[in-house]
Amino acid sequence: MSYKKHPPKAPHFDEQGRVAFEHIHALIGDKAWKAWGFGKDKGNGLEWGLLRDKLGLERDYKPIILDAEKLANAGDYQILKDDVHAVTFCRFGKVTQAQETSLLLAIAQHSKAQKVFFADNLGENKQDLSDYVLRLREDKEAQSTAQAVIQMTEQSPISRTELYVDYRENGKVKGLHLINPKVNTETGEVTEKETWICDNLELAGEGKTLSGEYYYIFQWQNHDEDAPRTVAIAREDFGTDSGWKMLKAQGLKMTQGSGLTQKLTEYFHFNGNHCTQWTITNVTGWLNGAYLLPNGEIIGEPKKPIYFTDRSSSSLGYTTSGTLTDWQREIAQNVRGNASMMIGVAVALAAPMLSLLGRESFGVHLFAESSKGKSTTLNIANSIYGNPEKIKLSWSTTATGVKNEAAARNDGFITLDEIGQAKDGKNLETIAYDLFNETDKIRGEKEGGNRQIKRWKVSALSTGEKDLETQLRMQGAKVHAGQLVRLLNVPLEEANHLHNFPNNKAHADHLNEKVQECFGVIGREWIAFLSNNADTVKNTYKIIRQKWLDLSNNMSGQVQRVAGDRFAVLETALYLAKDLTQWTEEESAQAILKNFLNWKEEFGENSREETSLIRILTDWLLVNEASFIEYPADPNARRPVKASGVRVLANEAKKEEEHYFIYPKIFDEIIDGFPKNMAHSILFSSGVLKKPKKPENGYNEYIFKISKKYIGKTVRAYKVTPFSDDESDSEKNE
Questions:
Q1: What is the rounded average pLDDT for all residues in the chain?
Q2: How far apart are CA 678 and CA 663, in angstroms?
Q3: Residue 499 φ/ψ region, left for φ over 0, alpha for ψ in the -120 to 50 degree band, beta for the rest
Q4: Which one of 33, 46, 81, 509 is at 20 to 30 Å from 571 when CA atoms are compared?
């Protein structure tokens, strides 16, 4: 389609452009001029007046007007000026699929409009066709399909003499039929033979996945369902036996005739709604301005329709029961004042906030001996989004299974019960580390290339009798400092506000019973609030985060990070959800602060690397003390067969404290698992590792040349002056 040399202008074309980049409105359809008004009512038609007032347009505003003839030949007219950024076409009367397609193709090829909408005669029920127009500009295949739609669908069925597909009703037999026209050569009369193909199947749009796969979106009405059934079929499968089988499995009734289905395939390639662009996704969470739950439920109004192609193993658990009032009365009211239970709720509420705030995934691990309320706390947290029994997970799940669930619950919440049930140390280590990496490993396809990488963002609540670090060591797994600032070890406090219940058991029994009756509603209310108040969420977090950074100002960078990126998020969640939980700001702030102090007591105020390195070195020295040659030597002591170095005893007269010279090979083995330069720097900064005044050429700056007086020969070693944990704590307190 190309312009003539001097293409005519659409009606009211010159009236555009009063303001650069204004949003243009147009009337389209076979009743567009009637809506505008004739004669003395020109420009004051009743329908146009209603639309104009509804849109808040000036009384002298003149819209573009395109009747049936101009729509069919839209490519021959100047419709929009170059500075028009957005346009809404409001339908009045009949507008065929071919006319719409012709108009959109013209807009794509002969304008610079970025936002294109179709609406009804009141400016409502908008269809955003901006992405489709962009495809028409850039994609030759889309252009060819559009041209075919224009050419084929304008033909009147009455004049057709070849086989075609159309909707017909023959008594109780309704749906798409193959129409076979027969022309009487003598009279010219056309008779039609109708052969039923399938239910009234409609093409509702097209879609494309992030990996570039194209889909058709079909809809039809099953007799036993209230809403139309929507199914996405990969374009490569459409028209094949497997594709038809998929549709029939979803309830579509259709013929078995291969010739008929072939005609049906051809029909949909050029008919139906090819304009509406759907987002095809297997990822939940925030998408197109709305939120997709793992069961496919959409909260909010997406800017583009969404089709969800996947389900998690626990998707059936994302249902609702009871009301918000029920949850507030039976659960929230009885959780009030119990810090561990309240942080469980905070972790759950934080999940959909992370993407909005640009924060990374994290979790809280609550640990305590049995019968202290760990399972109850998990049930309460799970009740935010669904049935606790059906959406909970366990540490006994494989690492792959947990990552698959995380991907299926993107921007969502995950719980892991009882860390002691982890299959083995390796599985425990992998889950604790990989869950918060937010991405799976790159895996290749058999056919070549790589599979689509799974990504996720989650908040997690974990429980166990032991803290994460202890559990990892018990199972022979490595402890990474990064794990301990992503999954926070917080001692669980047994509920001490029982709210008229006689004891903890009665209190817990009530909560565990009621979470089976009241669930899922508050989570949907919370997500709806977030979707409508993104700026409020960000601004509130900014203020609260600064408070937490001020609180942790004199602590290590790791502690500050946890304070500002973890606990500040949790407090923000409870602060913003106060109308849902009915907890006061002060109650929520105190609960989060209490958990922070409990966490800090476990973690310490210094970096975890520093704490871990000093502990590892100190523990190693205690265990291997006998492997050192003592100086001054004890004549009655046995010299170790394989010495690790020299232990120089304290000399009060010379005011020399006890220290160790550790051979380089042994020292490297002790700090294995930490980057060497980082370990040297941390240990030196803490005062444990010493430097010679003048480092020897050819050796690193921490290596000492030991005098012959110690062991009768010159050797080189690291000098270490350890201190006990008690001494370390007292020094820090001073």
A1: 88
A2: 19
A3: left
A4: 509
What's the pLDDT tens digit per position in 355-382?
A: 999 999 999 999 998 888 999 999 999 9
Q: Which residue has the tokens 């669908």?
A: 153
Residues forming a β-bridge with 9: 78
Per the listing, tokens 């389900």 go with 311
- The tokens for 86 are 């957005």
How far CA 705 is from CA of 23, 352, 528, 661, in Å, comes to 80, 58, 68, 10
What is the distance between the alpha carbons of residues 662 and 649, in angstroms, rounded to a whole number?
14
The sheet with strand 115-119 has its strands ordered as 64-66, 23-28, 86-91, 115-119, 127-128
d(CA 683, CA 725): 14
How far is it, in rounded angstroms, from Cα 688 to Cα 611?
Answer: 12
Neighbours of 590 (CB within 10 A): 15
Task: State the burial class of residue 572 (Cβ atoms within 10 Å of its Cβ: 0-12, 13-18, 19+).
Answer: buried
437 in Cβ contact with 341 (< 8 Å): no
CA-closest candidate to residue 44, choices 57, 84, 123, 95: 57
| SS3 (DSSP) at 60 | coil
**DSSP assignment string, 263-305:** HHHHHHHHSS--SPEEEEES--EEETTEEE-TTS-EES--SS-
Give 606's pLDDT tier (boundaries 50, 70, 90): low
Dmax (CA) for the chain in angstroms is 132
User: DSSP secondary structure string, 125-139?
Assistant: S-EE-HHHHHHHHH-
Continuous segment of H or E residues that includes residue 49: helix 46-55
- Dihedral sign computed on CA atoms, order 249, 251, 257, 262: negative
Beta strands 645-648; 285-287: pairing state: unpaired
Contact 130, 100 (CB under 8 A): no
Instruction: Please check whether residue 363 is in contact with residue 488, taking contact to mean a CB–CB distance below 8 angstroms.
Output: yes
Q: How do residues 233-245 score in pLDDT, each as one tens digit?
A: 999 999 999 999 9
**Distance separating alpha carbons of residues 491 and 600, to the nearest angstrom:** 10
Nearest Cα neighbor of 103 from 179, 1, 19 is 1
The residue with tokens 């690790």 is 644
- Cβ atoms 129, 105 nearer than 8 A: no
Residue 442 has pLDDT above 70, yes or no: no
Q: What angle do helix axes 339-350 and 374-382 make, rounded to 10 degrees?
A: 30
The structural domains of the chain, ordered by start, are: 13-154 (no CATH), 158-281 (no CATH), 317-603 (3.40.50), 608-733 (no CATH)
Higher pLDDT, 6 or 353: 353
Closest CA to 96 of 168, 153, 176: 153
**Beta bridge pairs of residue 629:** 646
